[in-house]
Amino acid sequence: MLIAIAGNIGSGKSSLTSLLHQKFGWAPHFESVDDNPYLPDFYADMKRWSFHLQVYFLSKRFILHREVSESGVTVVQDRSIYEDAEIFAMNLHAIGRMDDRDYDNYRALYAAMTSYLHPPDLLVYLRASIPTLQRQILLRGRDFEQSIEASYLAQLNTLYEDWIQRYTLGPLLVIDSDETDFVHDMQKQEEVLYKIDHAVRNKRV
Q1: Which of 85, 121, 129, 185 has the fewest Cβ atoms within 10 angstroms?
Q2: Could you tell me the strand order of the sheet in which 122-127 lies?
């Protein structure tokens, strides 16, 4: 099975992915950040590097998605391939940091790739406010993320909410990260783990 963890930058995807691995033994797959050759350049000049970054993410997640589907094991994935197109590329195009030519090319490539994929067996969406996102970004201390503007995070949040309202590919579980500190609050952690385990068990039945 494939459980995908979706959410804005700093919403807690990596933390939840690690927690699910520790609790259930599901194989974790994290977003390529530290070894991503485009991220620092992208945050320094989004318009110049947006297409390159999005194609990099798209190819990496497509390969991972196919490998997971063929592996026969349960995998928890930090961010899905669908977010690349429905959130990040769409936002970059909307704010003028990816031109029409690149965006049309990207969407065509995305459509072709996803036509070969089986959707996640469960999508877990971590909903978080801007203050929560900013706090988490500050705490994890990645230098290239410190310049991310609140307005950019807000634009992404708007697109996330719109996408979640339209999401029909499979089972969906929404978790409020503002009210659910599953990293430090053990009671909240158990509640989140129960909800996800329950959703996965129902899927198996």
Answers
A1: 185
A2: 27-29, 75-78, 2-7, 122-127, 172-176
Containing structural domain, residue 8: 2-204
Q: How far is Cα 3 from Cα 72, in angstroms, rounded to an integer?
A: 13
C-alpha 196: how far from chain center: 17
- CATH, residue 50: 3.40.50.300
Asked if 3 and 196 touch (Cβ cutoff 8 Å), the reply is yes
The alpha carbon of 148 is separated from its chain's Cα centroid by a whole number of angstroms, namely: 17
Structurally, the chain folds into a number of domains equal to 1
Catalytic residue among 34, 41, 78, 181: 78
Per-residue pLDDT tens over the stretch 15-62: 999 999 999 999 998 876 667 888 888 888 989 999 999 999 899 889
**Whole-model pTM?**
0.87
| 56-82 per-position pLDDT tens digit | 989 988 988 888 888 889 999 998 999
Known catalytic residue: 35?
no
CA distance 38 to 24: 33
Helix and strand numbers (H, E) in the chain are 9, 5
Angle at 170 between CA 164 and CA 175, to 5 degrees: 45
Strand blocks (E) in 63-177: 75-78, 122-127, 172-176
